[in-house]
């Protein structure tokens, strides 16, 4: 619908009058100017849950600011802790902030619906991309709040656990997540590094973090002579969390091997569209897939690419 068109706007208002939930992500104030804001819909639908998603909120300092995922990754500090000193700030490979904000919005809407179930009252739910990102920085945010110092970029390393990063193998890299002393001792045993495991220099996680560079040098002297599969087999057999650095196709294949059924083909009419399955599994109300994404509209009288 074209919300600047009177008839389309009237249709949108009619739909909103009976809707359980309305979600919008215009800049703050746009829906009000269109006559489709929360107060407008509340007049005829007092139980509505009205969810607004914006980049930076509706304060005078922020209301007129446009925002996209890349911008908020930068403004929100995520790029400052992603990458290495050599690479400089790097964005995450997907529109992660959009996804995080959507998930927070969904949780907020569900909470508002539960409140409505109990009281009959609707309400407005507001989520910003910036605050969704800040809330999702988890240990990096709490490290800043606790010390007053901003974390730095450290590539694939963990700021407070070692060894917890990617490692070189003879034919690529593996990801190692050695989360406790027992796992570290098992790693040293199967890689023939017993002396490293018993050394005071690496005996505790705190010591390993301080001496991370020397530790990784010892480990990679062994792993660089083994294929990634050999490293994974040895460490997995010893109960050490490790895995390959997959591309997207390999990730789908791995999920299928684990029985997660990551792909579903949805058929409608004369076309079948592959889609990613939902990560949620519900025992009584399993996820259902009814329709694929709509066809793209034809341009200039030509058939659309999905026609």
Strand order of the largest sheet: 1-2-3
- Report low-confidence residues grouped into runs of 5 or more: 301-307
Q: What is the domain tally?
A: 3
Please give the count of helices.
13
Strand content: 5-15%
* Number of strand segments: 8
What's the CATH H-level superfamily name of the largest domain?
Crotonobetainyl-coa:carnitine coa-transferase, domain 1
Which structural class is indicated by helix and strand composition? alpha/beta
Task: Write the CATH fold name of the largest domain.
Answer: Rossmann fold
Largest sheet: 3 strands, parallel
CATH architecture of the largest domain: 3-Layer(aba) Sandwich
- The arrangement of helices and strands along the chain is HEHHEHHEHHEEHHHHHEHEE
CATH class of the largest domain: Alpha Beta
Mean pLDDT: 94
Q: Which bin fits the share of residues in helices?
A: 40-55%
- Cα-to-Cα separation, first versus last residue: 21 Å
Large-scale geometry: elongated
